[in-house]
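Aim 2 progress update. The chain analyzed this quarter is reproduced below.
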Amino acid sequence: MTSSGPGSARPPDDDGRSMLERMLAGDLYLADDPEISARSRRAMQLQDAYNASPADDPDGRRRLLTALLGALGDDTIIRPPFYCDFGAHIFVGARVFANFGLVALDVATIHIGDDVQIGPNVQLLTPTHPLDADLRRAKWEAGEPIVVGANAWLGGGVVVLPGVTIGADTVVGAGAVVAKDLPPRVLAVGNPAKVVREL
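Predicted structure tokens:
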């Protein structure tokens, strides 16, 4: 981010890209841009329909998720309620199970590998905001991608912060806040999450 001096900031230089292009590149952007807002409204309509869908219509639920997400693997279950920003930037593998209350804020991409288990009320948070107060006040924000490796298990209430990769077969204990990458095949717990042993 650019700044014109201590205590003051100016928006990033106009490089000719749209706000959507800036967002997808992980650069500072304005979320109230009309193109971004239209995509967000579409996602809200689909997620509202999904969250209100009857449990005895699994095919209808799958159609809604397929329309909402960037990719949805076979035999994957995401229990409503489910919340996202756009949906189109979320790529979910096969045989994933996500329990009630998953929040996946996808201003950057979220990749969830095959056979991942996600407990209730997990948050996958890609958005970031500038430390500079003037840029925040002007509503600039950005995002960093999240990757959850195959066969990982995120316990209930886990929070995964922007830019984090969780390795395959890793287990994250309930309530942990994952602020840094975790390698494959470890158990991590706490806030911030720390590796306590290999698996």
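Helices lie at 19-24, 34-51, 58-68, 133-137. The chain has one domain: 19-198. These observations will guide the mutagenesis experiments scheduled for the next reporting period.
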